[in-house]
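re: ur msg from earlier - yeah i can do the flavin-adenine dinucleotide complex, just paste it... oh wait u already did. ok heres what im feeding in:
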Amino acid sequence: VKLVAVVGASLAGLSSARALREQGFDGRLVIVGAERHRPYDRPPLSKEFLGGTASEADLTLESDDEDLDAEWRLGTMVTSLEAGSRLSLSDGSTLSVDGIVLATGAQPRRLPQMDQLAGLHLLRTLEDARALRADLKPGARLVVVGAGFIGAEVASTASGLGVDVTVLEAATSPLAGAIGEQMGQVVSGLHADHGVTLRCGVGVAAIEGEDHVSGVRLADGTLVPADVVLVGVGVKPTTDWLAGSDIDIADGVLCDAYGATSVEHVVAVGDCSTWYDPATRRHQRLEHWTAARERAGIAVATLLSGGTDQRVGRPPYFWSDQYGGRIQFTGHITGHDEVTVDEGSIAERDFVAVYRRAGEPVGVIAVNRGKAFTRWRRQLAQHAAANAHSRAEE
Ligand SMILES: Cc1cc2nc3c(=O)[nH]c(=O)nc-3n(C[C@H](O)[C@H](O)[C@H](O)COP(=O)(O)OP(=O)(O)OC[C@H]3O[C@@H](n4cnc5c(N)ncnc54)[C@H](O)[C@@H]3O)c2cc1C
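and the outut:
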């Protein structure tokens, strides 16, 4: 392999570039990124950066002395992939490469009736966060559409800034897809603890306003007045540009358990990809920081070895910081038949709960109990590695 292109210059792209060099790739490395910025970290955009306790300089993902000997093409999009190796770029140039890492991430979903209005926000990029931050003035009324992690974190940060916050959620319980209904309700109880109104089971009909948002019209006709609205209704993987290539797509770039796509010499990692997970025998797209970072090494090993180096990853993991506390989750909820609190207490918002399937632990969630969680996470990872090993021997 002489020339590798990494498409996407954020966490998954940077981690892949690092892994390429760490794993001995000494050829030409081109990193193409649509954003003008060097790689920066997104989690603080809804937390410290939004709250004003972290600066733009704090967001950098690179260290000062880092030199990957790469050609960075920032502010440039890759517009198509042909014949599995020819990339067209938005600056009119083309690249013929021997290997590709797809790391194009995801973009926030919009509501169908979403016009351009001042005070109406999405949150994914540094520009989004700057704009939202400027609008979060004490006493302002913020309506958050969607009680997922982004919505919950923005609600938490905004309420800390003295903003009056209402969160609207279409489902009867938030976060059910990520952590199950029972724990979704527990975690969403944090909003009420901190004076934030959460309304579940409400449909949004329209965001209203002339030039500036004035409120959110609900499906039942009532208007929730707002000075600022954040729409946090999930993301979609950035894969449109791959239409017409031979890359198989299904809610993300379809990959095996090692990041290989349907096209030879092309791997995918991070929010744009949906990897096969042997533990659940399904493809699952993870939208988590740790997956983007850790799986880069696996995908790169797959690329450089032509698929013979099959590294086993750790079970999925994510964290979310809300209202001064930390929620952590690892593993799966697929097919669990019970969730029990094994340490601490829900009422105290300080606990570890374990998801089990037929008595076997499959997932763990903790609120404000990092040490115990880390112990559980290690156990679950060992268990998963042993299972993967025995499956490989079958
Ligand atoms: C506000 C916020 C808070 C978060 N908080 C947490 C958290 O607390 N915990 C957690 O686990 N996760 C969190 N996440 C998720 C985490 O940040 C993502 O999982 C991670 O950023 C994924 O990295 P990625 O490189 O795959 O994708 P992205 O970070 O989306 O980067 C993809 C990059 O590719 C570029 N690109 C797209 N298409 C092209 C193209 N055709 N050509 C060139 N470049 C292209 C994009 O512009 C972008 O820069 C948060 C995300 C956000 C937005």
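cool cool. The first strand starts at residue 3 and ends at 7. ping me if u need the other ligands too
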